[in-house]
Amino acid sequence: MTAPARRRADPQESPEAGSGPIEAGSEQARAERGSIEAGEREGAGVRPIEGGAVAAVLLAGNPNAGKTTLFNALSGARARVGNYPGVTVDRRAARMRLGDREIELVDVPGTYSLSARSPEEQLAADSVLGRLDATPDAIIVTVDATALTRNLYLALQILESGVPTVIALTMMDEARAQGIEIDAEGLGARLGARVIPVVAAQGEGLETLREGLLKVLEEAEAGIRHEPVRVEFEPQTEADLREVQQLIPWGEGEAIRRAWAIWALLSLGDDGIEDIPAELREKVDAIRARAEQAGRSLDLELISTRYRLLDEAVAAEVTIPEGDRRPRTRRLDSILTHPISGFIVFAIVMMALFEALFTWSGPLVDLVDAGIGLTQGWIRESMEAGRLRELLADGVVQGVGNVLVFVPQIALLFLFIGFLEDSGYLARVAFVIDRLMAGVGLHGKAFVPLLSGFACAVPAVMATRTIENRRDRLVTMLALPLMSCSARLPVYVLVIAVVFGAQTRVWGLVSAGAVALFAMYFLSVIGALGAAALMRRTVLKGKKPTFVLELPPYRLPLARNLIASTWTRVRTFIVDAGTIILALSVILWALLTFPHDPQIAAEHGRLRAEASAELSSELREARLGALDRAEAAAQRKASYAGQIGQAMEPLLEPLGFDWRIGVGILAAFGAREAFVSTMGIVFGVGESDEASVPLREALANAERADGSKLLPPIAGISLMIFFVFACQCMSTIAIVKRESGSWKWPLLLFVYMSTLAYLASLLVYQVGRAMGWGLG
Which residue, 481, 501, 530, 739, has most beta carbons within 10 Å? Predict the structure, then answer.
């Protein structure tokens, strides 16, 4: 097969016949070989690059084909890298220099083809074919060298559009290790595009890729273009395409409109794609109905021809050794994907994670805590006494500090999950638990959003875009907020430290705190799966979802990628602490400080005067400290926040909470981790006479009005269970509204989670109290 001819674009010139590259084959049947015919379009639809303009270059490719790694290597950006299909769920862009010109490199969602069955696939198609913005100036397509035929299917579709394209053969180190030999030049000649082998993680081939991309952009600027690949389908299929193409409202040029026509026949039907003209939908429905009556499969006709041609090209230009090319992978998979041993390994891995979070991070937590104390001390020493000093030391530093102290644990969580993801292990876990997830009505692809929910529900909800069916997406996004996100972790760790002894071990092996933490996360998983099962059988009834998953090869994660992605996530958490948490801390400090009751101040002033006059010096200091704490508690109870908490107390008392916990629960709706900073303010941890007393000690020593402990073990467990199930996150509600397109679903989410949290906490506390458990 010959490559398409090049020529200078001339608006006055009539189209000429040309010869060009490929398409063929079928996912369902790869029988019968077909010939490759290439043609050209009437106007490529690719605009010349204006002098000085920023060139738009898209980076497209299959999921897990090394696309984001290449994006980072080319641009120096630090996009998240994952060894799991569907990690990129939105477009991300970075400016970079290429020669003497500036380009904007855009990393679009991974997709196996330009046919859209999910929001992320539609975003990729819109980006490549110019429905969102103008047609891109050039496209880099990443093609996994170890899975050429499947990856080239997307590349071929892009070449059909006529957009200038460079193909980056990624994973070349793995291909060589498997004995795969690829004639890149010969493959490029068949495809009519530059094919450049790269190993992005090691920098191999990157300079050649930059040169190839620059050459393509210079040709486009000079008006030289490659003719698009044109695949000739069966005569009836071609007739169907012409009917649809006449109704395509987007695209510049015949080739792109033809690509949109193929997209319409493969994508429209049972879909949730928006902004599609009604007449186009009606035409596609009519054509598909007509084909079905005639016993034809449009999908098979369109896909099989392409795969046949790709099979021929790969057979001619690629040498693949016979036998098992991945013996190590097979051996590991026999253990990690086994229905029994796979679950055992997963449980061990998760237990190790929680032990790390609770025990190994201790020294770093103490270091951060000491830094916060030093900062408070410096403020008190350098400023005069007054409301401003109290605000800075007790409102700002203590409020935000009580959240920042948990950064080491959150960083460990992100680092651990990133390692499992990049190594390829997460895909195996998804395979192992697919049967369980299908049993409760969750799509197999819901595993990554659910696991992402351990970090934050907001990106996890966005990750549901990888799920094709709208009903499956809704079930997942309504269940995943039950997964214990990183914002809950500070609450768990604080309460566990209060109600369990730090040295207590279970069976002498694992700390009691780690077991309790594991139990909270395990309970959250059970809650999420149970909620999904209930919704699948009630408000979101539907057939059992199917799941097709590609198991990536095992890879040793790159340390710099792990560190970069962990820092990005931790930085997001810190920024939240510096904005939302800071604002809430200041507001709460004001609500807990005002109004200032002069009668309380006068009464405690009288008691202090009496103590100073009557008690010896040894007893006086202790008595004055106790009076200061008593006055602070009385003033907080009389404050606006105290009044709100007392109004909530009758509702919270059956759960084992008093008005102080109620104030924290109320503040946690803005951000769950704000509960910790709120407790620091409520209990006056930042006051000068108690500056060195940690918040956990204040909570451990706190008492109710009747003299009983505020947080005995059963009340602490009740509080953690409340946080497991409660929907205390404004951001989650907002993102569910955006992704679902309706207020109905976030309202349902808030109501069912709040009800579940209250009932579960009520049951645990009342049963535990009746049985005499955890009261001392």
Answer: 481
